[in-house]
Amino acid sequence: MNAILECKGLTKSFGSKKALSDVNLTIERGQIVGLLGPNGSGKTTLIKLANALLTPTSGEIRIAGMKPGIDTKKIVSYLPERNYLNDWMRVHDIIGLFRDFYVDFKPEKAYDMLKRLNINAGDKLKTMSKGTKEKVQLILVMSREAELYLLDEPIGGVDPAARDYILETIISNYNPNATVIISTHLIADVEKVLDHAIFIRDGQVVLSSSVDAIREQGKSVDGLFREVFRC
Amino acid sequence: MLGKLLKYELKATGRTLLPIYAALLISAAVTKFISLFSGSGDNIPTFISAFLYILILVGMFVMTFVVMIQRFNRNLLSDEGYLMFTLPVETWKHIVSKLLIAIFWNVASFVVTFASIIVMTYDEIFVEGLWPQIARGLTELALVLGPDSCLVILEIILGSIACMVFGTLIIYASIALGHLSNRHRTMASLGAFLGLTAFAQILFACLTLIPNVRVLQHYMDTLQESLQTSIALFHYVMWFTIGFFAFLSVGYFLITNHILSKRLNLE
User: Fold this and answer.
1) Could you tell me if residue A116 is inside a domain?
2) Tens-of-pLDDT digits for all 231 residues of chain A?
3) What is the number of CB-based contacts under 8 A between chain A and chain B?
4) Own/partner pairs, A114-117, CB within 8 angstroms, 24+ separation
5) Which of B3, B84, B161, B243 to pair with A157, CA 20 to 30 A apart?
6) Helix or strand or coil: residue B182?
7) Which chain A residue shows the shortest CA-CA distance from B3?
8) Among B4, B264, B266, whose Cβ lies nearest the Cβ of A100?
9) Which domain range does residue A189 map to?
């Protein structure tokens, strides 16, 4: 089996500013990966490149051996860091949309999670708080049986209790062959679920290591992060 | 997948436009109702109601236009684009679905306008015998055009569609070109629109001035102002216009599709 995500000399510039600079990275299947770095380090840029929402300036990125396109979109479930839902829709409209377009979407899973989080499927998104909308998006994304989940700041905007539920949802909803990439700067919260950690700073990967290897050095991911990114 | 995109596009746009259509028809009916009962005396209520009708009518066409731009710009190139462009759908299908629905609402707006005029004038048309006159006029026109009537109708329909497709795609291409700029995308889109319009006009001028002068001369020389010349000239002008709009539409479509599939950079 080929790697689920591979970057070779991946560079993305916005005008004269380099958001990602010569990134070489291979992520194997079947693990939960933390893409960790401070704000503005290039995490979102990398994830958007993987979703073909941005075009690389140079280098290439491949998902399961394929360039981002219609075939990779079928196997990637993406949670952006912003709200992409039409305000005028109701939750069940959006569920219908996901069911229409994604073959791997399981509506019963989505309804089940909505129930557990006390979200009414008949509610309009317009009337929902920012945190509730984020939960709805995460539910949609995790109700797919994708090969790769790209979650950009999935716990940034919700309260700590919901954070635990969300992380639990992420772990319990993905199958062992799937890969989850979680981008965040809230490392202490996600540390316990991670198999692999990638540190990214100023558009460059400064570390890619299994969490076990970090622990063998007697450090926690959070501790190591504070060490590497000391201001 | 195109069918599904069309379904969602129709839903997303219908919620704005259908209430306006309803408002137009209601205001037409109210105008008619007031004018029937106000008689020849006090005309102010009729005037106000007719004024409202015209406001809604203008508003309807403005909104048809605004919705067309907004659906492309907001649904594809703002935050909603994060969802649309991660659906496993080819980019050209997004463009075609938006284009088809934009054309559909354009046509619908004209149909509703026509219906509202009938609502306001039904008694003149059906009761006071205007209808037979209209029918006679149409029959005479058909007689004049002879066997060409169907062709003329086809040309007018195709010409209108080509014109609408062209008008929509030039805006899509402008927005897409503006998207290439790193900042000031709206200004860049406006600039692109002026550029594309100028290009279309210059091309049209070149094409009409050079070869068409000879064609027109030919018509003038051979069949001096006869009816056949006029009809033949009409056909020529129509097909030329349809071809011109179709040619540029294909170009603008290709520009839009290339940028959205190969040069996409959502903020």
Assistant:
1) no
2) 689 999 999 999 998 899 999 999 999 999 999 999 988 899 999 999 999 999 999 999 999 999 999 999 999 999 998 888 888 899 999 999 999 999 999 999 999 999 988 999 999 999 998 888 988 999 999 999 999 999 999 887 777 887 888 888 788 877 788 999 999 988 888 898 999 999 999 999 999 999 999 999 999 999 999 998 887
3) 60
4) A114/A139, A116/A165, A117/A162, A117/A165
5) B84
6) coil
7) A100
8) B4
9) 1-75+148-159+181-231
